[in-house]
Design brief:
It contains 2 helices and 5 strands; from the N terminus they run H-E-H-E-E-E-E. By secondary structure, it is α/β, with parallel strands linked by helices.
Length: 86
């Protein structure tokens, strides 16, 4: 789990945001999505990137998410906070 990523997401995502958490092929997600969903409350978590306004990503290829996104923060090592374009 990337602690810097979850702390930065808490700073960037509006409190009324709907967000998804995605990882790339090599990302070990284990319990991280549950922790992120809890830590980022009252923001609402969805597993469907197309239903989200924001995506917290580590190692995922943005072109494979099925939605168009803008990179808002790139923390390096594949850790990114993305905003879904509407």
């Amino acid at each position: 789990m990337n602690q810097e990523l979850v702390l930065r997401a808490a700073e960037i995502l509006p409190r009324d945001a709907v967000f998804s958490i995605v990882g790339g092929r090599r990302a070990r997600m284990s319990g991280a999505p549950y922790f992120y969903a809890y830590w980022l409350l009252p923001r609402r978590h969805t597993e469907d990137p197309s239903a989200s306004d924001w995506i917290v990503s580590w190692g995922a290829d943005p072109s494979r998410l099925g939605v168009k996104v803008d990179v808002v923060a790139d923390l390096g090592g594949g850790a990114k906070i993305l905003r879904v374009r509407r």
